[in-house]
Design brief:
single chain, alpha+beta, Endonuclease I-creI, 2 domains, 4-stranded antiparallel beta sheet, 11 helices, rod-shaped
Length: 320
Amino acid sequence: MSFSKTSKIEIINSHLETADTAFAFLSGLLHSCGQLEKNSKGFRVSIISDLKELFPFVNELVKSLYGNELALNIENDYVINKTPYYRIEIPSSCAQSLLVDCGLLGLVDGDYQFISGVEPNILPNDETKIAFLRGAYIGCGTSSIRLSEREEEKTTSGYHLELSSHNYDFLSDTSSILSEFGIFSRLVERKNNFVLYLKEAESIKDLLALVGANESVLALSNEMIRREKRNQINREVNCINANISKTVDASIKQIDAINTIISTIGLESLEETLQEVAMLRLANPEESLEELKSLSSINLSKSGLNHRLNKLIKIAQELK
């Protein structure tokens, strides 16, 4: 199951909207995944979602608002990318009232018209704004985040969470609401659609915490720790490999210089300390300066040893 779907189910299972937040939640849900139609018989309202778990939650919520006579129907409506989507039908007896109460329908010149933006009157305080964000996230939130199943497993996905909609006004207003809680998003157009997205892991955690997906926040925090640990290990390995490569290159250059000296003037023509350093390097071609220093019988510092090896290279260059 995807990270975003898991977090949505967590929200549904852990929250029970109050009378104050119910309309705000439903407003966010209808704006994000509602299908609204007006015909000669009135208004038809449906909620389209791949979350089967959403049905009992919405059913109970709408019943509490409009009475026990209400009944919602759910059916397997269609499949996208092998994922079944479900249609939650709102009965016509309360469809218009629901749209008005949730701020999606208003009177314009004596006639009811759909409202594309978020009606501020239904979000009078932080509690209702957070409920609206819960509905919006459940309705159209998606994420590329992939959690590691094992400590050593490497995931290729980054941190990306987005809300997508054909309705620019809805996403623009949602972005403004997020900014009130210190969560800053970007809004772009993509393939005849609008996308509000977050790419920073901390911002994504803030949003999930705000809408009440606390277990998902913990899972994401653990994933961030695992990835940072893997990155740190990779950096250390790369550093070690770079040092090994540097040591090997230096050793090859030093041995080449020593062989040039041997084939021309001979090692015996050098001063004793240079002779010993040359023999030490020939006997230990793969060792680092630190390791050569520990093997040497001459009391030399690492810089002193390096100086004599460089002197051998200089002598070889002059001989060439």
